[in-house]
Amino acid sequence: MLRATRLVTASKRGFATVVDASPGFKVASVDNGQPTSSVTVLLKAGSRYESKPGVAHILSSFAFKSTGKRSALGTVREAELYGGVLSSSRCREHLALTAEFLRGDEAYFVDVLASFLASPKFTRHELSEYVLPAVHSESSAAAQSAPTYALELAHALAFRNGLGHALYADPHAAGNITTEDVRDLHARAVGSPVAVLGTGISTESLAKLLESSFSAHKTASATPASGTHAAPATAYHGGASRVASAHGPQAVFVGFGSTASASVPALHALAAHLNPAPALKWATGAAPLASAIPAGVSAQSVLLPYSDATLVGVLLEGADAGALTEGAKAVVGAFKDAAAGKVGKEELGRAVARAKFQLAAGVEGREGYVGAFGPKVLRGEAANVQAALEGVQGVSGTSLAQVAANLVKGKSTYVAVGDLHTLPYADEIGLSA
């Protein structure tokens, strides 16, 4: 508890304000005296915003390729000379471009990021020779992973459009995407608010470096201006799907969705309550699912909060369909018990404490604080974890039961990937049709 309090204090101090920088950048940074620094640019360029399926995946793979100032090879060689690391990652809402480097080298790496924002070339030969092969490899690997495929299908069922768009490009259709499609998504993302988060550098210094570097790269040949983009409001639908797969272990996802932002703290507590993982490795967990999950089945609670929707559930993985069926029945039973108010005071206390710890510990690493603070920075909110911790702390048995009841009364999201001759249908594990 003391550690979490110290983290909240430091987080509040380091991310208390968001600085507006030209043109449309929102900057926040924290400097705790660490020997390395990092800068992450967060763009609204996730699959939710793409106008053609797969273009967000391709834009992500175009990161740090040729720009108006550097070739792709030049960027790699210079970054290696500085000892830094460049990377890109994406989710359904955002594309994150990150530079990690030794303290004091921020001018070069901010310039690399600004160059991609202001003057990317998006050449046809890089698309065909480097980008598409990487996209095909990632998409094929995702399709052969039953858990990954199950979560992809769960999003498509739960949200259909927007958040339901595939995170990975279809290898058979990616060749239809042109550099103009990629350039359009990039231009619309840069034309929308852009969040820039740093560590090991002050907010003011980062804002000044970004403004000067972006202005220097913004030339007549830079990405053309384009209107900002916004995704339609998310609606939750739910549904069931069973897909045959012979790749590796089988997977089953049982979950529900919500578009009520006020229920997010209770959903954090509910996901922690459902989490079967024990506090000590090899020990038996106290969560209701810990003893109900059969041997040979791996289970993890899933909580995916987005800007206007949340997907919560449990992902099961294993080789034996019978064991997966029993595990899935236990998950449905745990949801229904929570909805009926059968979560005891001690169980609730454990769930709240675990949810708070996961929130606090999650922002200590770079990826965690980018995921937690980035959307807040884009909205101009105070980027600290204190409000989230206080929200979870306020979850009561009544509020947890109400949120769970609202989920169970709605339509579930059920996905089974594996041997369709043996994997169960949704109604066979207790879910409504």
UniProtKB/TrEMBL annotation:
Q: Which residues form a coiled coil?
A: none
Q: Where is the Peptidase M16 N-terminal domain?
A: 26-168
Q: Where is the signal peptide?
A: none
The UniProt keywords, alphabetically, are:
Electron transport, Membrane, Mitochondrion, Mitochondrion inner membrane, Respiratory chain, Transit peptide, Transport
Q: What SUPFAM superfamilies does UniProt report for this protein, alphabetically?
A: LuxS/MPP-like metallohydrolase (SSF63411)
Cell compartment(s), UniProt: Mitochondrion inner membrane
GO MF, any single term: metal ion binding
Give the matching Pfam families: Peptidase_M16 (PF00675)
Q: How does it sit in the membrane?
A: Peripheral membrane protein
Give the source's domain of life in one word.
Eukaryota
Report the InterPro entries cross-referenced here: Metalloenz_LuxS/M16 (IPR011249), MPP/UQCRC_Complex (IPR050361), Pept_M16_N (IPR011765)
Name the Gene3D superfamilies for this protein: Metalloenzyme, LuxS/M16 peptidase-like (3.30.830.10)
A GO cellular component annotated for this chain's UniProt record is: mitochondrial inner membrane
Membership in a protein family = Belongs to the peptidase M16 family. UQCRC2/QCR2 subfamily.
- PANTHER family, alphabetized: CYTOCHROME B-C1 COMPLEX SUBUNIT 2, MITOCHONDRIAL, METALLOPROTEASE
Protein name stated in the entry = Cytochrome b-c1 complex subunit 2, mitochondrial
